[in-house]
Design brief:
The complex is a heterodimer of chains A (149) and B (169). Helices cover 0% and strands 54% of the residues of chain A. Chain A has 149 residues and is mainly β. Chain A has a four-stranded antiparallel beta sheet, with no helix packed on it. In chain A, strands 3-4 form a two-stranded antiparallel ribbon. Chain A has a two-stranded antiparallel ribbon with strand order 6-9. Chain B has one helix at 3-21; strands at residues 41-50, 61-67, 84-92, 97-106, 112-114, 117-118, 126-129, 135-137, 142-151, 160-168. The longest helix of chain B is centred in the first third of the chain and has 19 residues, at 3-21. The chains are: A mainly beta (149), B mainly beta (169).
Chain lengths: 149, 169
């Protein structure tokens, strides 16, 4: 039979969600009597296939009760989809010895090409033991902005 | 009967016979010419309506144009090579959707019925809805259809889903 054909050609290209740490530094709260007893360093520990830091390692040395350090870091959105902080979790914190908390931006949304500042506070408590090593992890999960309420 | 009389009589008889055979007549002829009609449909317009863009309309885009992609009537002697309705969704994310409302016009002189269509398997992570009603389209008439595209959570990041082709006869 006679017929004429029409076609619809549809292509869907999806975007990508990806964040990385960009700047990061330790800033100590002033120590008593102007001494420089404790110290803090922060370095990139794990890098992804594009050499972007995705895990930081914070090392606090010779700390003592009431020592307080703030790790300032920024998170960059390096892909094409806006993101929001979906959740964060501290794992392995010894609550007897340490107070740790995260200061997050009021609006955690990061558009592509933009950054957001975060603060990780570490405070050594009076019950911390001498000559001890305390380790913990902080994991931040970012998700596409439209799915985070 | 002498020779002259015989010839004269024979000519007279021949004239009588010939005049009897040459009777009046009239001829009718049938001259047949069949002109066939033309069946032709084309995309005649479209409108794009994007779904909820969550306050950021610049993130994803749904672009539509009429352009030549391929000869869809290569093996169809009664068809012609029409422009395709080309839909390109870029930087899409789960939750993004767009609906393309498009019109088909019968530009031929033969009524058509359709569409009879093929919808290929839709990849996981996408939703494609196209459920047109079968209709008769008279010459000059136009009908509107819509195709709905949605990106689901299962969609891969940084992926390109091609050849989501609809074929309408």
């Amino acid at each position: 039979m006679w017929s004429d054909t029409l076609k619809i050609n549809a292509t869907i290209e999806t975007g990508e969600v990806k964040v990385k740490f960009s700047t990061f530094e330790c800033v100590e709260e002033p120590e008593a009597e102007g001494k420089d007893v404790g110290s803090c360093t922060v370095v990139g520990e794990i890098f992804d296939g594009e050499e972007m830091p995705v895990k930081l390692k914070v090392t606090v040395s010779n700390a003592y009760p009431s020592y307080h350090v703030i790790v300032y870091f920024t998170v960059d959105n390096v892909r094409s989809i806006p993101v929001k902080l979906f959740s964060y979790e501290f794992v392995g914190v010894d609550a007897e010895a340490l107070d740790v908390w995260l200061v997050i931006p009021e609006d955690t949304q990061i558009d592509p090409g933009y950054s957001s500042p975060y603060e990780l506070h570490i405070h050594v408590k009076q019950d911390a033991a001498e000559n001890s090593t305390y380790t913990f992890e902080l994991e931040l999960t970012f998700a596409q902005w439209n799915e985070v309420t | 009967m002498d020779r002259e009389t015989f010839l004269a009589t024979s000519l007279l008889l021949l004239a009588v016979v010939v005049s009897a055979i040459a009777m009046w007549s009239d001829t009718l002829r049938v001259n047949s010419v069949v002109e066939t009609g033309e069946l032709n449909v084309v995309f005649s317009g479209y409108v794009v309506v994007e779904g909820d863009e969550y306050g950021k309309p610049w993130v994803a885009d749904c672009a539509v144009e009429l352009r030549e992609v391929e000869d869809e009537d290569l093996d169809n002697p009664s068809g012609d090579n029409d422009l395709e309705l080309s839909i390109t969704v870029s930087n899409a994310y789960p939750g993004y959707s767009c609906t393309v409302y498009f019109r088909v016009r019968n530009t031929g002189i033969v009524p058509v019925v359709g569409p009879f269509y093929e919808l290929p398997d839709v990849p996981e992570g996408l939703k494609v809805a196209f459920e047109p009603r079968l209709a008769q389209l008279h010459p000059g008439d136009e009908v509107e259809y819509s195709i709905y595209l949605e990106v689901l959570q299962e969609a891969e990041q940084g992926a390109t889903y091609r050849d989501l082709l609809e074929k309408l006869d």
